[in-house]
Design brief:
- By secondary structure, this protein is α+β, with helices and mostly antiparallel strands.
- It has nine helices and seven strands.
- A five-stranded mixed beta sheet has the order 2-4-5-7-6, with helices on one face.
- A hairpin with a 3-residue loop joins strand 6 and strand 7.
- The radius of gyration is 18 Å and the shape is globular.
- About 30% of the residues are buried.
Length: about 230
């Protein structure tokens, strides 16, 4: 398989309102070929494939997201722990803090998962230091996710990202969908970023089973590696 040609073809298929199931099927075939191949550049090929998968997922925002009772604390803790385990090889570490009581809300777990991982990915990418601080806390009737790292994120880049098709745009759409908000501040030395969603009583809805750490780490084509590869 000519991987470069396949990547170019798939990239041309990715645009708003594209046939995303068809694009994912084509990309999955490429993933399968990469995994089975014995080429020496497998890591770079996987990186390119994951880039396309992130692009697809950030554009494919569902019209009617599903509704589950989500344990935001457990979900965020497991995602951050797994990201930290993967990133430790690159000498980037994540520090996670949360309220002592678990925070629950009514949401689509896939949207919240992608929003958290996009925020982690952006914070790590633009951090100039060794640590990224991540916090989940209850402020009034809202669950607030905050990310703090050293380094500058120019405001022009911020607005460009919001109007683009990447992670910040997806986080913004997720926050707005749930009547939350997204804020960022950068002073040249430190960047602070947060997004919030309302806390909603979801006792009448089925509870989402948060993937455990083993599931997240051992799925090499799963959300952790898609976010960080």
């Amino acid at each position: 398989m000519n991987f470069c040609h396949e990547f170019e073809q798939i990239n041309r298929m990715i645009f708003p309102d594209a046939d995303f199931p068809c694009v994912r099927e084509k990309l999955q075939a490429v993933f399968d070929e990469i995994i089975l191949s014995d080429c020496t550049c497998k890591e770079n090929l996987l990186k390119s494939a994951f880039f396309l998968l992130r692009k697809i997922n950030n554009l494919d925002f569902p019209e009617k997201p599903c509704k589950y009772k989500c344990n935001l604390t457990q979900l965020a803790e497991n995602l951050v722990f797994c990201c930290d385990a993967v990133l430790c090889e690159s000498e980037k570490r994540l520090i996670f803090l949360a309220d002592s009581d678990d925070i629950f809300t009514l949401a689509d777990p896939k949207l919240i998962t992608r929003a958290i991982l996009n925020a982690v990915s952006n914070s790590v990418k633009h951090s100039h230091g060794d640590y990224v601080g991540i916090c989940l806390e209850r402020i009034g009737d809202r669950a607030v996710f905050s990310f703090e790292s050293s380094g500058d994120f120019p405001i022009d880049n911020y607005f460009h990202s919001l109007n683009g098709r990447g992670g910040l745009n997806f986080i913004s759409k997720t926050a707005k969908f749930y009547n939350g908000c997204m804020l960022m501040n950068s002073d040249g030395e430190k960047t602070s970023f947060l997004f919030s969603i309302p806390i909603v009583n979801a006792d009448d809805f089925p509870e989402y089973r948060t993937p455990d750490i083993d599931e997240l780490l051992f799925d090499r084509l799963g959300v952790i590696y898609e976010a960080l590869y």
